[in-house]
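ASSEMBLY PREDICTION REQUEST
Request ID: AP-0331
Submitted by: J.K., bench scientist
Number of chains: two
Total residues: 472
Priority: normal
Notes: Please return the full assembly, not individual chains.
Input sequences:
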Amino acid sequence: MSGILNSSIGRKFAMALSALFLMVFLLQHFTINLLSVISEDTFNTVSHFMGTFWLVQFVLQPVLIFGVIFHFIMGFVLEVRNRNARQISYAKNNGSANSTWMSRNMIWSGLAILAFMGLHFYDFWFPEINTKFIEGDMSGLLPNGEFRYFEELQHKFVDVWRVVLYCVAFVFLALHLLHGFSSAFQSTGANNKYTKGLQGFGKAYAIIIPLGFVFIAVFHYLNQ
Amino acid sequence: MNLTLKIWRQKNANDKGKMVDYQVGDISGDMSFLEMLDVLNDQLINKGEEPVAFDHDCREGICGMCSLYINGEAHGPDRGVTTCQLHMRMFKDGDTIFIEPFRAKAFPVIKDLVVDRSAFDRIQHAGGFISVNTSGNTIDANAIPVNKHDADDAFSAATCIGCGACVASCKNSSAMLYVGAKVSQFALLPQGKIEATDRVLNMVKQMDDEGFGNCTNTGACEVECPKGISLENIARMNREYLSAALKG
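STATUS: Completed
Returned structure:
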């Protein structure tokens, strides 16, 4: 069993599992963010629940952090090994004749997402951890007694450049998912009569989720 | 037609190698790509120069020996053909054609456009076979019932000629389409199931030991494969491998 991760197939299987886990998380993240557009109160209530419930904070959050780190590290490991497998490049290579740009540039779309995550953590995750676990304020309230989550979210989208950066990052997320969704299933060995339908669903997921995130960011920018 | 050829020239395995320009004229569209190279080599020999070394044997798309990377694609711009089946009508008068060897760490260049693909042989030796009692009690293969769908899929996988276009086309130099086909052609048939666990573990280990890259599912191999080997074979190999690894 331990030998699985030392093999090429084992590594891509592990990569695929972490990708599937992150795609489920992304859907959950999107659903909660969408609540901020639909109902301020519901968004605050759900955010407070997610931010204070022990199972989310001390079990699911560490699993998520591990999943993210594992996906990035494994991605780099695979990239280095793959580059090493061809030491002399072709003088002329027509990659677009047989594969999509997305499939050939997963490392670059992944790096763009990694860079965005730095900004995203700076904006939301680090302040949240600071408030709750360093300052010890688990109330989720502002001095005026109202929940802070919606206001903090909206405050981040005052600056147009931040909104642009978020939108650009979501484009890279879409490009990453356009290949990553169906690739994850292929890596787990799932290639059967449902594959075509799954690829269609994957394309819809890869476009709708990032587009939804763009909509949420722009919505809050325009509704200051 | 008159063409400019940019060809990889390398004296031997230790030489650094470089692209060299050549001019060829009076090329007919009905010629195969290898016949065009024959014309070039006649020209070089007549001038007292070293002819370009390239692999070829059957020249009818069966043996898998021809292995050129032409204008950025394995076996050139046509689909479902090997280099020997590629016709010069795919090109226009005045074209510049890049001709390179299949590139992969596991396929070292021997000379010019000739690469050593014996890594494929070693993968095959690691498990690409079935054990059959040949002491006089051999069971006729036709006496064992096989599902038609499985038989068709096994036959499709078995059409792989081991040319290495999958490795050459893959941005990662992955051999998973080749190994997937070789694993599948046995895994789908009753005769192959007995040694299935050892086969896939040993063949994948050999593939990794040879230095091929990891598959990232770009699908380039399937598009460039002259025999149309499907990505389903890679997925089947993944299932076979994971199942075998869990069994130990």
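REVIEWER COMMENTS: The mean pLDDT of chain B is 96.
SIGN-OFF: pending second reviewer
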